[in-house]
Amino acid sequence: MNIPTIYLVGFGPGNPELLTIKADKLLRETEVIFYDNLIDEKALETYSAQKIYVGKRKGRHSKNQDEINQILYTATSKYSHIVRLKGGDPLIFGRVGEEIEFLKQKGIHVEVVPGISSASASASACGISLTKRGVSSSVAYCTGHPLHYMNIPTADTLVFFMGASSLQEIMHVLLQKQWAPSTPVAIIYNASMPNEYISKYTIESILSENIKGVSPSIVIIGRIVSSKNLF
Predict the structure, then answer these.
(1) How far is CA 132 from CA 112, 129, 137, 151, 216, in A?
(2) How far apart are CA 51 and CA 48, in angstroms?
(3) Alpha-carbon span 167 to 213, nearest angstrom
(4) Confidence of residue 146 (pLDDT cuts 50, 70, 90)
(5) Calpha distance 7→231 (Å, rounded)
């Protein structure tokens, strides 16, 4: 008897050309794909598997996490090869830990396939290196949503995921944590996609100009943003 396997696969930052070889292979072999928000549905048309949307987005969740967990488990009674497709890298703010824990408790075999993070794609879009000798020897990935989970670690460079709607609050907290008002900030919208857009500010100018973030965006903060671009 075939033991059902659920593959938790990272789609990458959005551009299907940045999909890993293993992810593409699994998507071609699988029977069903449960896919997240922010994944290009046209790109999924390449694959013959059944596609089921189970995405979550602030203020308009189609399914909550408990429902998604149960849907994945129920699918194992019908399918032996299942792909749970997540944007970016599923191990970075992808709630993959909750799904793995639930499925393993149910005796389901799980395999994680990492993807290119939207943080890496955003830094590449800006032509900056998240770490650079003499400028940034540490980088921290942070969540900007929900606000009560927001934590500002000690690092030279901060990368905020899901921070578009709380951009103003993040800047206020940074000032409270003694970050200089002149600290440069890059906001990258839809990194790797044709409509990618990059804007640069400082903490102070975001607040004084009341700049609002647009989702999906990555926010990179630190001196590295104003350092000499790689290209």
Answers:
(1) 30, 6, 6, 23, 26
(2) 9
(3) 6
(4) confident
(5) 36
Q: What is the DSSP letter of 66?
A: H
What pLDDT is stored for residue 37 in this prediction?
Answer: 85
- Right CATH for 5-113 from 3.40.1010.10, 3.20.20.10, 3.20.20.70, 3.10.450.50: 3.40.1010.10
Question: What are the φ/ψ torsions at residue 45 (nearest 5 degrees)?
Answer: -65, -20
Per-residue pLDDT of 178-203, as tens digits, reads 999 999 999 999 999 999 999 999 99
- The predicted model scores a pTM of 0.92
**Residue 78 dihedral angles phi and psi, to the nearest 5°:** -115, -35
Q: In this structure, is the dihedral angle defined by the CA atoms of residues 90, 217, 134 and 179, taken in order, positive or negative?
A: negative
Peptide bond into 216 cis (omega under 30): yes
pLDDT > 90: percent of the chain: 82
Residue 59 pLDDT more than 70? no
- List the catalytic residues: 36, 56, 162
